[in-house]
Amino acid sequence: MAHEHRCLLHYLPYEHSGRIPAAFIPEVEGRGKEMHVKDWSTFDEHFGPYLDGSAFEGTKRGAIPIPYMYLPFNFHWPADYVKFGTKGYRTEFAGIMEEFHRHFTERGWLRTKFELFLNHKKRYKLFPYDGDETRFVWDEKVNDIYYDLAKDVLEKESGAKFVFRTDASWSYGLHFGKYADLIKLWVVNHQMFSWFPESLDVLRDAGCEVWTYGSAERISQPLLATAISPLAAVARGVDGFVYWENTLWGDDWHVTPDSEGSTAVFYPGDRLFGLQEPIPSIRLKVLRNTMQVADCMEQWVRAQPDSGRARMGEAIAEAFGLAPGAWWPGKPDFLDKPPYEWENAMFSEAPIASLHEGRPSETLNDLKRSLWGILG
Amino acid sequence: MPKTYSLMEIARLGALFLPGDFLEDVMPPERREYPLKVAGTDSQFALGDEVDFVEDHFNALKRVLLLTERIDPLRRPYAALWIRRPENPALGEVMVAGGSLPSEGADIMPLWPEILRAFSGRPTRRDRGGGQTVYFPVRNSDEDIVGVLELTENVPPLFI
User: Which of A135, B13, B66, B102 sits in a 20 to 30 Å window from A252, CA-based?
Assistant: First the structure.
């Protein structure tokens, strides 16, 4: 369903503890220098069809492999966290990563980017670092540590493609320059990303991909709000966006989804319709339609000389009645403080791009007409 | 028949190796009363944003917890270290977890009789349906009780 709607169901395979269900990893045995993959069969059965595209045969979009997938590597797998900081930890982590790369390459899984992503958060008391959304700047050391453990694979120029991903918020302003050469997939809080327009050139020059993240729009919002994410991605020049997270529809979703639907754009199909499959929300339909528009825009932009994106940004701004530069609302005045000194009250005063508020629903149709005029 | 240890005996062995001073100082001094930094909000998320650790202390404790879970190869408990909140000792929280979080989770919460008994110095067992938890006091180098080691078996941990 996600594939048909131009989306990726990006499923993190491990808990905050590092535990992973058996179906999401190959069978590994041994310790230290003896650690190796014993059996790939369960992993291949689970993920192979997504990675060679065969899972999507017969769909409207065709048998296209998923474009990205999280790796199961984390603080406590495959390396034993008891050994953290020792040569044995490196042996286990780097050795299995090398096996992953070799296996994925042999299987021909070359059209998917595999992400090393450290989602751990210290609030859960399982590890002392935030790998995700670093707030205390000293936690940034995990970027250096895990890049060093994985670099032999991350720096390979042939075979399957493994990338280092970070989800950045508090420390984005401190990190985009420092880690652009190590981290190649940046997923940035959409509000904080908008404070740093200068970051995009830095990341692009280093060959990075950039997504923004936020929540899905609430059901109480006009559908135009849902259309904003793909269009803002085109105007800002980012490669995509993420709804984190999107599997919390709640037990009474058929009455009212949890969080007004901001944590789900699809629902279980069994309760109301007896379908043993998910069903898309209307918001997801609107999102798909708008992503088709955004794809057209992006294709046109890339075929133009440098001014193409600016032209598309103008078309979007004109349709939405936005002032020039509305995508970049300015920097808050607390950026001179380290993120661990930021207080929640400061965020209510911080700049935020308000792009759809008060616009009529016909705005998207106006944009489409404008776009067809540009495309010719 | 291979020998197996009681959960309490595993806890006693594990506690021997726990550096209590590190538990006492697992957070930097400026973070020890971290709830007071967000006293004006009920947001658990905002509260969690204020958590920080002294990594060497945390990692040393975590390592002992993970190894404690492995003392008896015939059993598969999970281990965690609880503290009483300095700004409100009627409340407590997990400060370091081993392989999993206890079913109670990681939030600050009112403490219950069995764990309070362990905080008073008396190792305590709590039978929980088909499972069992033991609480064992953890002392610092001054022999003050600074925390409680929990070991739990056959009670599902928190899924997070």
Answer: B102
Query: Residue A198 belongs to what H/E stretch?
Result: none
Q: Is residue B158 part of a domain?
A: no
CB A94 within 8 A of CB A86: no
Cβ distance A123 to B159 less than 8 Å, yes or no, reads: no
Q: What percent of chain A has pLDDT over 70?
A: 99
What CATH number has the domain bearing residue B131?
3.30.450
Please check whether residue B71 touches A, CB under 8 A: no
Mutation site, A31, A126, A169, A346, interface B, largest B CB count within 10 A: A126
Q: Do A124 and B66 touch (CB under 8 A)?
A: no
Output the CA torsion sign for A362, A365, A367, A373: negative
- The 3 state secondary structure assigned to chain B is CCCCCCHHHHHHHHHHHCCHHHHHCCCCHHHCCHHHHHCCCCCHHHHHHCCCCCHHHHHHHHHHHHHHCCCCCCCCCEEEEEEEECCEEEEEEEEEECCCCCCCCCCCEECCHHHHHHHCCCCEEEEECCEEEEEEEEECCCCCEEEEEEEEECCCCCCC
User: In terms of residue numbers, what domain contains B111?
Assistant: 7-153
Show Cβ contacts of residue A29 under 8 Å, excluding neighbours closer than 6 positions.
A35, A36, A38
pLDDT at A358: 67
Q: Any chain B CB within 8 A of the CB of A84? A: yes
Domain boundaries, chain A: 1-129+138-168, 181-376
Reduce the DSSP state of residue A108 to 3 states and report it: coil
What's the total number of domains in chain B? 1
Predicted ipTM > 0.90: yes
Contact by Cβ (8 Å): B149, B83: no
How does pLDDT run across A63-103, given as a tens digit for each residue?
999 999 999 999 999 999 999 999 999 999 999 999 999 99
* Chosen from A14, A77, A125 to mutate, greatest number of chain B CBs within 10 A: A125
Tell me which DSSP letter residue A251 carries: T
Whether the CB-CB separation of B92 and B108 falls below 8 Å is answered with yes
Task: Sort residue A156 into left (φ over 0), alpha (ψ -120 to 50) or beta.
Answer: beta
Chain A residue with CA closest to B53: the answer is: A128
Tokens of B14: 């594990």
| A121 contacts B62? CB cut-off 8 A | no
Which residues in chain A touch residue B103, judged by CB atoms under 8 angstroms apart? none
A-B CB pairs within 8 A amount to: 63
